[in-house]
Amino acid sequence: MFGIPDLIALVISAFIILPVVVFLRQSGYLLMSMILGVKNPRLTVGSGPRIIKIGVFDIRKYYHLYSWFSYDSLKRQGKLAYIALYASPILLNTVVAITLNAMVANGMFEERATFFNRFVFYAFYFVLFDVIPMKTANGMPNNGLIIYEMLRYGKRTDFNNEPFLPSTSEVEEQYAEDVEKMEELKEHQKEQVEQERKNDNISRAEEKDQKEEIEEDKQESKENLEEIKDQRQDQLEEYEDNIPK
C-alpha cells in the first residue's frame, strides 16, 4: 500500500534525485568540452526566465528536471572528438553510479543507503536510454544513435536540420526573442486589465448615476404626494367650512 514514507520517497526522487542526475548528465558534456575545447559553452539549469548567469552557468527560474548544454563550435574537429563529446554524459553517469554503488555495497552511507540506491537507479536509467541507439520523442537522435552513426559512416550524421546540441548563440537569440514576446504579452495583459478596470469604473459611475436618478425620482414623487395630500386637506377643510350649520 502507498503510504506516507512512499510519498516522501517520491518527492525526494522527483525534486532532488532526478534533477541532480539530469544536471550530472549535462555536466558530462561540459567536462568533455573543456578537454576538447569549445567556443562559447553554456550549461543551462532549469527553464523559464533567467535568474542569473555566472560564467558558463545559466540559472533559470524553474529548475525541475531540465538542464542542457550548448556550445557554438568544437576547436578539435573529427570523429573521435564528436564521439567523446556525445559519450561524455554516458561515461560520467556510469562512473558516478558504479562508484556510489560500490561505496554503498561496502557499508558506506548506511543511514542514507536508500537515497543513494535510488540515485544509482536513476543514473543507470539515463545511461540505458543514452546507450541504446534510438530516436527521442521529438525525432532527435539520442547519444547512442549519434555515436553509432559516427562509427558506422565515419562522420557526424544528423536526422534533423538542427544539431543535437544547440548553438549557444542561437539559443541566446531565441531566449531574447522569447523574453521580448513575454514582455509584449505581459504589456498586452496589463493593458487589458487597465481597460477592464476603466470599463468597470465607467459601469460603476453609470450605476451610481442611475441610483441617484432613482433616488431623485423617489424624492420628487414623495414631494408630489405630499403636495397632493396638502391640496386634498385644504379642499376638505374648505368643504367643511361651507357646510350649513
Strand order of the largest sheet: 1-4
The fraction of residues assigned to DSSP E strands is 5-15%
Number of strands: 4
Distance between the termini: 106 Å
Oligomer: single chain
Low-confidence stretches: none
Q: How many strands, which pairing sense, and closed or not: the largest β-sheet?
A: 2 strands, antiparallel
- List the total number of helices: 5
- Radius of gyration based on Cα positions: 37 Å
Mean pLDDT: 82
The number of domains is 2
- What overall geometry do the principal axes of the alpha carbons give? elongated
- SSE run: HEEEEHHHH
- Class per helix and strand makeup: alpha+beta
- Approximate helicity band: 55-70%
Question: Keywords for this structure?
Answer:
alpha+beta; single chain; 245 residues; two-stranded antiparallel sheet; two-stranded antiparallel ribbon; 5 helices
